[in-house]
Amino acid sequence: MKNFxxxxxxxxxxxxxxxxxxxxxxxxxxxxxxxxxxxDLNLASSDGVATLQHRVAAAASQFCGDEKTLDQxxxxxxxxxxxxxxxxxxxxxxxxxx
Length: 98
Prior knowledge:
By secondary structure, the chain is mainly α. The chain has one domain. It has 3 helices and 2 strands; from the N terminus they run H-E-E-H-H. It has a two-stranded antiparallel sheet with strand order 1-2. Helix 2 packs across helix 3. It is globular, with a radius of gyration of 14 Å. Mean pLDDT is 76; it is low at 1-17 and 23-29.
C-alpha cells in the first residue's frame, strides 16, 4: 500500500471525471472498456488510494471475468493495473502542461 501511495502522490491534483481502461484486448474481448471514477479521490491520502485500489480491482475483475485460466486472469488484472497507472501518469503530464 505504501508503494502504491508513494507512486501516486504526484498525481494528487488530478481532476479526472473517469479513467477509461481497455487493457489486453483479445479476440474474446471485442474492444471492451471499463471506466474508473477518480475525480472524487484525493490520491495523496491513504483513504483515496485505498478507494482507487478497490475500484481498480473491481473493474479488473469485471473486465477479466471471461478469461479461462487463473494465469490468464492474473495477467489480465495485472495489465489493467498497469494501464491505470500509465493513464494516470499521462493525465498528470497533460494537466501539468496546462
